[in-house]
Amino acid sequence: MSVGDMLAATVPMARTLSLQFLETTAERAVVALPDQGEYHNHVGGPHAGAMFTLGESASGAIVLAAFGDQLARAVPLAVRAEIAYKKLAMGPVTATATLGRPAAEVVAELDEGRRPEFPVSVAIRREDGAVTGEMTVVWTLRPNG
Predict the structure, then answer these.
(1) pLDDT digit string (tens) for 35-86?
(2) Which Pfam family, just one, is annotated for this protein (predicted)?
(3) Which of 11, 51, 83, 107 could potentially form a cystine with 135 if both were Cys, beta carbons 3.0 to 4.6 Å apart?
(4) pTM for the predicted model, two decimal places
(5) CA–CA–CA angle 20, 22, 26 (5° rounding)
């Protein structure tokens, strides 16, 4: 099962918004939000809450891809998030997430018995490539037990 399939199966909100996991690797995750009238805002574009969920889902996808091999000993959790809405988004939008720290560095902190935190940067774009939103989600790997 791919990371995208796993998220769609275990995170009901991803299914609710019909998010499409286009690419999910330890280096990059790309998730699309189709244009759906029931999730529009007052100007006919995707609602801010839907775009937040899109960005957070892309960040979660890259976290699972990069740290899936650590799930037996730690659970990934979002700690905090910040989003900036830059331009009007209309139609389908796509979120691209990248890790803000090398995965090996994060795992080394976990190996030392610490609870690492690391940022994931997300760019949300319209079909014409314009960046409509920028998001940072800070994640942690909370050791089990």
Answers:
(1) 999 999 999 999 999 999 999 999 999 999 999 999 999 999 999 999 999 9
(2) DUF4442
(3) 83
(4) 0.95
(5) 120
Considering the chain, what is the average pLDDT of its residues?
A: 95
- The whole-angstrom separation of Cα 53 and Cα 39 is 11
Q: What is the CATH number of the domain that holds 102?
A: 3.10.129.10
φ, ψ dihedrals at 49, nearest 5°: -65, -35
Q: Given the structure tokens 């979120």, which residue do they identify?
A: 95
Count the domains in the chain: 1
Containing structural domain, residue 72: 3-143
HSE, CB side, 13 Å, CA atoms: give it for residue 11: 21
